[in-house]
Structures are given as structure tokens and as C-alpha cells.
Design goal:
By secondary structure, this protein is of the alpha/beta class. Helix content is 34%, strand content 21%. The chain contains 6 helices and 10 strands. Helix 2 packs parallel to helix 3 and helix 4 runs parallel beside helix 5. The two termini are 39 Å apart.
């Protein structure tokens, strides 16, 4: 894995574009290896990164890349569960190790949510009401699904949510309807009958963390 990482660093180093490396983490247990992302580039930037789960690997990779990139982004979310060796803090590990390259923070989930919300508003941009009154179903009411749901309810969508754990789903719906602006008529509600058909919805969003529930025919 480290050989592949070094090879990608060499490829990026030859580019005249702004070079960016990023650290990401995701909910999971501490592992001995990491996941490398593909090298991507646009008109101005070339970038790739790693998804990892423990402090020691983060520091090892940080030493390897320090000074070789123009910017380093680190995921600020604390999503990794504590291990036998203590708490995992990717942000702290990067900031303790990187000495030469500028570090900037980001939140991966929030970028996903913002991109999703922007796309939805674009899809209904020609409608004078926007997404107001639109029937929208979100499959999966975890961290991402919950945050998207709240934003859409605030914009007037008739929002339905589906989650396997009905007890947690009920709590999530109560929270959304409790914290949305008092003057907002729209509300979140539970989607109870999957067999009734999905044609009534103007939009269906998949936010599950496992197997996809949306299939195109």
C-alpha cells in the first residue's frame, strides 16, 4: 500500500498544478491499512488522499507527504470509535506531524449534504415554488439523511423518511419537526408503506450506508 502511495506522490509531483492531499476518516474500527483514493485533477488542481482509521498510520503518512504538497486537507469529524490504544484523532495526528505544508480542515459529510442540496434546488429551479410542496422521500435517516431532511423541510418540502430502526426514526422525525422554524408549515413524516408505490414522489434520495434501495428499470 505504501508503494502505491509513493508512486502517486511521484505522479502528482510532476504536475505544475496546485497539489492537494487530503486525509479522511469514516466510522469503523482501527485497521492496519488505509484506503487510497484515485488521483483527480481539474483546470487548477491535482489531488488525491487517504481514508484511514488510526493515529500511527496518520503520522507515518504525514511525514511522507509533508512539504510535497501545496495544501493538506484533514477531515475534522471525529467518527472513529475508541480502540484499545485510546481515542483516534486524525486531525490531531496530522497537526502534530505536518510542519511544512499548510493545513486546512473540512467536513466530508457536510460537503456531501451541501452538494446534494444545491443539486436539488437546481433540479427545481424553473419551478416558481422551488421545492416547496414537493413530495420527497429519503431512504436512510442517518447522519447525512437527517441533515438533508432538515434542510429540505425548512425549504417547504413534504418530506418522508425511511430507516430500518423505527424507534430511532421516530426520534429523528420528532427532532426535525421540533427544531424547524415555527412558521414552517412543512414537516417530516415516516414512510410506512413501501408497497404502495414510489410514483407519487417528485424526488427520491438514497442515503443508506449499505446496500442501495433504488433500482432503475
Amino acid at each position: 500500500m505504501f508503494k502505491e502511495l509513493k508512486d502517486k506522490i511521484k505522479i502528482v509531483s510532476k504536475s505544475k498544478k496546485i497539489k492537494i492531499f487530503y486525509f479522511g476518516n469514516t466510522a469503523g474500527i482501527e485497521k492496519s491499512e488505509f484506503q487510497l483514493t484515485s488521483i483527480r485533477e481539474n483546470q487548477n488542481f491535482i489531488y488525491f488522499g487517504v481514508i484511514l482509521y488510526n493515529n500511527s498510520l496518520t503520522k507515518k503518512i504525514s511525514k511522507l507527504i509533508d512539504g510535497k504538497f501545496d495544501l493538506i486537507f484533514v477531515d475534522l469529524e471525529k467518527k472513529v470509535k475508541p480502540t484499545s490504544s485510546g481515542y483516534v484523532n486524525i486531525e490531531r495526528a496530522v497537526k502534530d506531524t505536518i510542519k511544512k505544508t499548510r493545513i486546512l480542515g473540512y467536513k466530508g459529510n457536510d460537503l456531501t449534504i451541501q452538494a446534494c442540496e444545491t443539486l436539488i434546488h437546481y433540479l427545481f429551479n424553473k419551478d416558481k415554488r422551488g421545492i416547496g410542496g414537493k413530495k420527497i422521500l429519503i431512504l436512510g435517516a442517518g447522519n447525512v439523511g437527517f441533515k438533508i431532511a432538515l434542510k429540505l423541510v425548512e425549504c417547504g418540502a413534504e418530506l418522508y423518511l425511511l430507516r430500518r430502526n423505527k424507534k430511532i426514526l421516530k426520534s429523528i422525525i420528532q427532532v426535525i419537526n421540533s427544531i424547524k422554524p415555527k412558521a414552517t408549515v412543512a414537516k417530516a413524516q415516516q414512510f410506512v408503506n413501501f408497497n404502495s408505490g414510489l410514483k407519487k414522489f417528485d424526488l427520491i434520495i438514497g442515503a443508506t450506508d449499505n446496500k442501495s434501495l433504488i433500482f432503475l428499470k
